[in-house]
Amino acid sequence: MSKIGIMGGTFNPIHLGHIMLAKAGYQQFQLDKVLVIPNKLPAYKDTDELLDSKHRSRMVQIAIQDYPYMEFSDMELRRTGATYTIDTLRELSGLYPNDQFYFILGGDSLVHLREWREYQEILKLTVILCAKRNGADMVTLDTMRMELLQEVKDSRILFLDTPMMDISSTDIRDNIQEKDVISQWLPDGVYQYIEKHQLYMG
Question: How does pLDDT run across 144-167, given as a tens digit for each residue?
């Protein structure tokens, strides 16, 4: 049985915080690989500033190219309609019926997990690996974790040992608009790609 990490997101753009989470999940839970899956039309996010999926996909591929255990997947981009995590997990369960999934997310997402479609089924299909992130203090996260574990028998929600994340794709886009320096938040290749294609310039 393989242990497969899953990290989904708009990656608009992908940044060093995302890479840190994937690395932490891989190293701390001895994962065999981490699937990095860009969303097409996320159901719970504003898509007004969502860049074309071709650019976002290329940036993901550039960002993870030096990590052989990270694997790009376009499975959500090929799906029609809004993107729901439960659909992705069911598809992956069909592709890898004997493997264990570890879903990597930030603490802010855990706080709102009950708003996700069929969240109880999500907890049955995967182990949640939660990272500390601005917008969710540890008391809140611990409370939410205990409540969810009581709701869904045999579910597992574990915390990643990572620094508090203070990087967001929204901040990066805002700084590009204001012509502030963004290179410290991005893999070099992603920064160069954004510069080359003049992305997020308004």
Answer: 999 999 999 999 999 999 887 678
| Cβ contacts of 28 within 8 Å, gap of 6 or more | 160, 161
- Kindly report the pTM of this predicted structure: 0.93
Q: Does any domain span residue 191?
A: no
Q: What range does the domain containing 128 cover?
A: 3-166
What is the number of domains present in the chain? Answer: 1
- CA angle at 190 for the pair 92 and 12, rounded to the nearest 5°: 55
Q: What is the CA radius of gyration of the chain?
A: 16
